[in-house]
Inverse folding.
């Protein structure tokens, strides 16, 4: 039985393009993941995905595969073809030059350098253009890119593993392992698709984590980011001594200069985020995007860092794992250390909720409802 027989033709091919894009998740940095499928006379003649920032876009790969079969073909693209020259040439021009007759686009490009201009260029050249096929799915897939195009700060996913009563460690500080191996494997996949992992210095002191993606297949490693206002980080910590990937520490100008010199000598980058006793997280995140090109961060902090990021409105998405355990204890560690909400209608709330189950664990993901003002 053909699983696609009841799916409209455009939706079928666009879904294939989305699958192409999904396969390259975590590889394109600040650029969006984009897929393209070329179809001519009912036959797929070209497929492609954007694989790395600064290199050929999805449309170019698909056109190269199709060759002369692109003449008269329909191109299914998950994002509006670019119309400007950046590190690569305009994909809209390439589609026109190849003789494509129709372009089906999932969603418009939020980049002001494109933003409808790619569509206009295609239409002016006489191509038929359709927009909006599986648009919501494409926008979700491109959520990091769309975020940084509209805000000057990275997309931050907050991952927390806790018990049913919202605890991340027992009264003695024990936290391994709350969730099961299935949940932990999924976290490794999350690490792979984010450019950086952010934790507080207390997590490094307590656990000496590797902060690496340990997938069964080789994968790109995220940059390790540590919030440490006074540079308490041990100089023999794994994130200092081992360099399978780079480490950046967000600190303050008031931190000890001798410690700064010692840490820099080990190849670690320091970003001074304000002169107060705490790190200016907003400044630090903006610097990570603008100066280091880090567009997506997986927050795996403790209660204090999680709470600070929440109260500052710096979290873009939540991925919350709950194990079927209850440990209690007023002194056990909560998910978020915040000042507390006085009225229920002022609570932080999530929307666009999704629920997955990993063995006996439950994972709830969602996006924070932005508060007015």
């Amino acid at each position: 039985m053909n699983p696609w027989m009841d799916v409209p033709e455009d939706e079928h091919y666009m879904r294939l393009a989305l699958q192409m894009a999904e396969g390259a998740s975590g590889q394109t940095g600040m650029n969006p993941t984009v897929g393209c499928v070329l179809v001519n006379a009912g036959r797929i003649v070209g497929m492609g995905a954007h694989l790395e920032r600064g290199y050929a876009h999805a449309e170019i790969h698909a056109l190269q595969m199709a060759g002369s079969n692109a003449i008269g073909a329909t191109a299914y693209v998950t994002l509006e073809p670019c119309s400007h020259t950046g590190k690569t040439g305009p994909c809209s021009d390439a589609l026109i030059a190849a003789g494509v007759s129709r372009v089906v686009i999932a969603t418009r490009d939020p980049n002001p350098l494109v933003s409808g201009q790619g569509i206009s260029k295609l239409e002016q050249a006489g191509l038929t253009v359709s927009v909006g096929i599986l648009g919501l799915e494409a926008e979700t897939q491109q959520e990091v890119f769309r975020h940084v195009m509209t805000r000057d700060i990275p997309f931050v996913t907050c991952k927390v593993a806790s018990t049913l009563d919202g605890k991340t460690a027992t009264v003695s500080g024990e936290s391994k392992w709350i969730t099961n191996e299935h949940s932990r494997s999924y976290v490794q996949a999350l690490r792979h698709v984010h450019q950086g992992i952010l934790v507080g210095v207390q997590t490094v002191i307590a656990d000496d984590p590797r902060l690496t993606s340990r997938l069964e297949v080789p994968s790109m490693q995220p940059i390790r980011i540590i919030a440490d206002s006074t540079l308490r980080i041990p100089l023999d910590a794994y994130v200092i001594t081992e360099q399978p990937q780079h480490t950046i520490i967000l600190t303050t100008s008031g931190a000890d200069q001798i410690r700064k010199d010692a840490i820099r000598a080990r190849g670690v980058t320091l970003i001074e985020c304000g002169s107060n006793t705490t790190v200016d997280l907003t400044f630090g995140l903006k610097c990570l995007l603008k100066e280091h090109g880090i567009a997506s961060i997986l927050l795996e902090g403790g209660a204090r860092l999680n709470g600070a990021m929440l109260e500052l409105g710096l979290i873009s998405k939540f991925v919350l794992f709950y194990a079927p355990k209850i440990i209690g204890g007023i002194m056990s560690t909560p998910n978020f250390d915040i000042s507390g909400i006085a009225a229920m209608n002022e609570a932080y709330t999530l929307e666009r909720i999704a629920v997955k189950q990993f063995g006996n664990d439950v994972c709830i993901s969602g996006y924070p409802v932005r508060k007015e003002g």
